[in-house]
Structures are given as structure tokens and as C-alpha cells.
Specification:
eight-stranded mixed sheet, 20 helices, elongated
Length: 519
């Protein structure tokens, strides 16, 4: 060929880039679009700020020579990797390309992902994975498996150092599903995403069970039943918007504080509607989110795991411009009782907030732990202990607001003073006791009730006596278990002032590798 000119070399480069950017070609791109899905590059474009993405390892190639692979060209080896800015902040990300060999992951594909994970932890910036692939590349055998192992290992190294977010925008099956499970948040696209260890065809062959792909591992299945999914997106664009919104509450790494935003609303405003928000009947349900939204900045609350274990509510908000994590009992579902799933859901969220310096505000209205043979057999003791462990281990600022009921061990589990709450605030409607008045009366006054001529009247008398003496916040306040009893309308002001006064707290614990959480 002889010596080529500079312009010829540049033209060759441009042609290579153009070919790589086409991925699997027009037909496969059209197929992707026909399924309502964006391509890997379109997803990158939709999440990063315009012209900020720097692609790394574009020219990577596989080196497999088995089963005809030596004849296959796989542009970018089926995954786009690099870094850019999301709302002005640096983020590293990968996006699997389903148009290239179904997004299957081989040795080089996985090495590309590992490289940017290493950069994310070195630079102290969030890491995002957009998954749309058929799992390990079978032709590459153990090399493909090794690559997944290296990703899992790095997921663990990044954990608690930088935020990790997984977007499931297509298939994510077999061992591939474990990497998202090791990250902090999983966002699944409705009707497109699917996650499972064993697919429907294998299930049918091995166990005889017949089930559709979506019923087995779709977004709503994992959002409602397994708890694997934290957010359900309507489409790919929605998934990217959820990711941006989530990142806005988080610091870039564990050594930074969360971003603080200016708020345009009256900081210390009263809200008279809070004085009348609770029903007079303490057994009547209400929606705790109505209270949350009246207290936080602009009524904005980003709920996490909305569909899973809805008897507890978790999520992010801002108060006076500061990011906070919220944990709240939900009386509108199962009376807000704590059970196995709520314990797991809240404990992991508490630990995430603690990792990334996000203060925790807890709203309490809890009648206790859920009784039942199944709960006992399935380990409510072990799971409930996770909440005790998570709150006790958390050293971020912790504020607890007792709205209504706070009974028994559940009162402790919802971050009481004894579990390390820095400030405990109660409404006059708070009831803090070992158990509800009816249950307590039956135990304490059993003999008197049984000996009475009118047992029902005596029982009601004793219930009222117990309520008068114990079903209020004043006994706990007298013993310094409550810092403040406040008028509900003043809730926002008191939480803001409490948070501002403890935001600089330092809580030094005994040195150790880590505690042994009751998993």
C-alpha cells in the first residue's frame, strides 16, 4: 500500500468510528426501536449532559477463536463505556448494546466495565450500569465467567465508597443479575426489563412450572414481590430521569457531604393543617406521606421501593435545602406494623444513608411487630434485629418524630433515644408504651376484670385508666426519652432547627473491621 497520507489515516479512523457507532447495524437498531427501547448510545446521550460524555475503549475487540467467534466483528465488544457529567457532576457509566450479539458479555466486554469501575472509585464519583444483555458469552466459557466475578468483586469494593445505580432496560439473566443486586439502587423499565437467575424455559424443563418472562422477572414482580427493584420506570427516558433525580440527593462519594440546594419557600413556616391531619380515632388509618410532604421542601419526596412492603415508607427529600433520608411507618397499610420485609427494606436504606452522610428523619406510628406463626418461622427475630443494628450503627444525624403510636420493641426499632437518636420530637398525640391500652389492660388488670360483675365496663374503665397514665408523650418526656413535645403545625421548624444544630455531630465508635449484622 505504500505510505499513506495523514488525511487517509484520518479518513480510515472516521470510517472505523462510524462503523462502531452503528453497533449491530440498522436492522437491529430498528428492531430495538420497535420494542420501545433506546439503543445503548441513545441511553448514554439521554442521561449525560450534552457533549460531556467521553467514550473510553471504543476500539476494544474480543479475542475468542472458538465456535466461529473468530469470524465475528462485535463493535465496541457490545458495551459502551466512559464518563461524563450528569447535571454538572462527573459520573462513570457503561451501557450494554443489545444490537451487538444480544449484549452478551465476554472477557473484553467485562474488562471494559472493570476499568471504568476502577476509575470511579479512584476519582470518587458515582457509577451507573445500564443493563441490556443476554448474560455471559457462552463461546468464551470460563473467561466470561471470570469477568463477571471481577465485576462482582468491584461492586463490593465500590459499595459504601461511591453510589452505584443499575438500570435494567432489557434482559439481565443468570449470573449477570448479581451485579445489579450488589449495587445500591436498581431501576427497572416496565415491560422491557427482566431479571431472573433461571429463565422460564429452564424452569419448565426442570420443575414443570410454566410462567411468562414478565411474571417471573419483570419490573412489577421485582418491585412488589422480591424487593429487588427500587424504582419502576415507564420507559428508557423515564429511567434516565429517575437516575438524575436520585443522584441529585447524593454526594459523589463517602467523604463528601450531600449537595445543599437553595430553597425558595419559607424556611420556618407553620402548617396549620398538620394540627388536624390525624383522625380522632387512634385506630383509624391515614397516609403518612401526607405528613411527610407537608414538612419537606416544596412537598417533594422521592420514594424508594414504593410497591414493596408498603407498611413502611422510605425515600429522599430535602429540608432547608439539605438532603435527608426518610423512614416512616405507613398506617394506611397493615396499620404500619413492622414485619420481615419492612425490616429488610428499611435496614438497607438506613445503612445506605449512613454510608453517604445523609441525615435520617424517622416518622413513627407503629403498633408493634407483626404477630404470626409464619413470621416467627421465617425469622422475624433475626430480621427485626437488622433494624436495631442499622439504626444503632448509623452515626449520621438522626431525628425521630413520634406522631402517634410507638409500642414495645417496635418503638425501639424505629430509632428511639436508646438506639442513638440525636433528637426525639413528639406530637401531643404520641402514645409511648410497652403495648396498646387494650392489650395492657387485659394483662395487668385480668383479675379485676374477671371478678367484676360487668366485665366489659370494668375492662373499658381500665383501658381508659391505662391510656390516661401511659398513652401520652409526657411520661417519656419526664424521663428524658423525648427532647421536645411540639405543636404539629410547628413540625417543619423544629426539624430544621434540630438538623442545623446537630449537622456537625461526630460519633466515634470502637475500631473494628465491621460489625456482624444479623443477616
Amino acid at each position: 500500500m505504500g505510505n499513506r497520507t495523514i488525511s487517509e489515516k484520518i479518513k480510515e479512523y472516521q470510517q472505523k468510528v462510524e462503523t462502531i457507532k452503528k453497533g449491530g447495524g440498522e436492522k437491529r437498531i430498528e428492531k430495538q426501536h420497535s420494542l420501545g427501547k433506546l439503543t445503548a448510545r441513545e441511553r448514554i446521550d439521554s442521561i449525560f449532559d450534552p457533549n460531556s460524555f467521553q467514550e473510553l475503549f471504543m476500539f476494544s475487540k474480543h479475542r475468542c477463536n472458538f465456535m466461529g467467534m473468530e469470524k465475528k466483528e462485535l463493535p465496541a465488544d457490545g458495551v459502551i463505556t466512559g464518563c461524563g457529567e450528569v447535571n454538572g457532576r462527573t459520573v462513570y457509566a457503561y451501557s450494554q448494546d443489545f444490537t451487538v450479539s444480544g449484549g452478551a458479555a465476554g472477557e473484553i466486554h467485562e474488562k471494559k466495565i472493570c476499568e471504568i469501575m476502577d476509575m470511579a472509585i479512584k476519582c470518587g464519583v458515582p457509577f451507573i450500569g445500564i443493563n441490556d444483555g443476554g448474560g455471559a458469552r457462552i463461546q468464551e466459557g470460563v473467561d466470561a465467567l471470570s469477568g463477571y466475578g471481577q465485576i462482582f468483586f468491584r461492586n463490593t469494593l465500590l459499595s459504601g465508597v461511591v453510589p452505584q445505580i443499575s438500570i435494567i432496560a432489557g434482559p439481565c439473566a443468570g449470573g449477570a443479575a448479581y451485579s445489579p443486586a450488589l449495587t445500591d439502587f436498581v431501576i427497572m423499565v416496565k415491560n422491557s426489563a427482566q431479571m431472573f437467575i433461571t429463565g422460564p424455559s429452564v424452569l419448565k424443563a426442570v420443575t414443570g412450572e410454566e410462567i411468562s418472562t414478565q411474571a417471573l422477572g419483570g419490573a412489577m414482580t421485582h418491585a412488589k414481590l422480591s424487593g429487588v427493584c427500587h424504582f419502576v420506570a415507564e420507559n428508557d427516558y423515564d429511567a434516565m430521569n429517575i437516575t438524575k433525580k436520585l443522584l441529585s440527593y447524593l454526594p459523589s462519594n463517602n467523604l463528601e457531604e450531600p449537595p445543599v440546594f437553595k430553597t425558595d419557600e419559607s424556611t420556618l413556616r407553620r402548617d396549620e393543617t398538620l394540627n388536624n391531619i390525624l383522625p380522632d380515632d387512634a385506630k383509624q388509618p391515614y397516609n403518612i406521606k401526607d405528613i411527610i410532604k407537608k414538612v419537606v421542601d416544596n412537598g417533594k419526596f422521592l420514594e424508594v421501593q414504593e410497591f414493596y412492603a408498603p407498611n413502611i415508607v422510605i425515600g429522599f427529600a430535602r429540608i432547608n435545602g439539605r438532603s435527608i433520608g426518610i423512614v416512616a411507618n405507613q398506617p394506611a397499610h397493615m396499620a404500619g406494623v413492622l414485619d420481615i420485609n419492612t425490616s429488610d427494606k428499611s435496614s438497607r436504606f438506613i445503612r445506605f444513608c449512613n454510608c453517604f452522610n445523609i441525615p435520617i428523619v424517622t416518622f413513627v406510628d407503629v403498633p408493634g411487630f407483626l404477630p404470626g406463626v409464619d413470621q416467627e418461622y421465617d425469622g422475624i427475630i433475626r430480621h427485626g434485629a437488622k433494624m436495631l443494628f442499622a439504626y444503632s450503627a448509623a452515626i449520621v444525624p438522626k431525628i425521630t418524630l413520634i406522631v402517634r403510636k410507638a409500642y414495645g420493641g417496635a418503638y425501639l426499632a424505629m430509632c428511639s433515644k436508646d438506639m442513638g437518636a440525636d433528637r426525639v420530637i413528639a406530637w401531643p398525640t404520641a402514645e409511648i408504651a410497652v403495648m396498646g391500652a387494650e392489650g395492657a389492660a387485659k394483662i395487668i388488670f385480668r383479675k379485676e376484670i374477671n371478678e367484676a360483675e360487668d366485665k366489659e365496663a370494668k375492662f373499658q374503665e381500665k383501658v381508659n385508666e391505662y391510656k390516661k397514665n401511659f398513652a401520652n408523650p409526657y411520661v417519656a418526656a419526664a424521663h428524658n426519652y423525648i427532647d421536645e413535645i411540639i405543636e404539629p403545625a410547628e413540625t417543619r421548624r423544629h426539624i430544621i432547627r434540630a438538623l442545623e444544630s446537630i449537622i456537625t455531630k461526630r460519633d466515634i465508635r470502637p475500631p473494628k473491621k465491621h460489625g456482624n449484622m444479623p443477616l
